[in-house]
Amino acid sequence: MDFLVILSTMISALFINNFVVSQFLGICPFLGVSKDTKSAFGMGVAVTFVMTLTCLITYPIYTYILVPLGLEFLEIIVFIFIIAAIVQMIEMALKKFSPTLYNAMGIYLPLITTNCAVLGVAELVIDHEQMAGLIGLANASQMNMGYAVLYGLFAGLGFTLAIVIMSGLREKVARLPINKHLKGFPIAMIAACFIAMAFFVFALI
Length: 205
What we know:
mainly alpha
């Protein structure tokens, strides 16, 4: 794997095409689990693990099973089934080894199953033409499972970065004497807008 392509993949997934603040996918857990940094980081780690494992499983299944059999139209159903299985395993592991984090995530943990950011990265990495443009490959034929998994990893880290920044801002804003009409969700949306504008700068460079 080319080092420059790996670097380009990292920058693209983390900053330029960040799933949350650039593509606006995965907004539900981004707003729902960003009230404190600990829960936000835990959710970010869980989403990163799911995204990486999802790309590792869905890419070869799509490439070597669905496409040869002409079953590409089943990709979304198959991908959701795989994501649901991965999330179920994580849920059972957290419930056993980290009950505090499990309780803090609440309903948002099962929602990773239908998190459009996770499904989005699974759909994105199988589009060789688009991926070649995003990560700087010379041509689409160079796209392989290694780059797919790498993009899934960095996309998850991008989600983690965004949600941790958001949680830090919300914790600070919660201690400020602001107008009561802005407290809670309204000020959170304003903070999210400023984060999105900050990330948009990377797309202009």
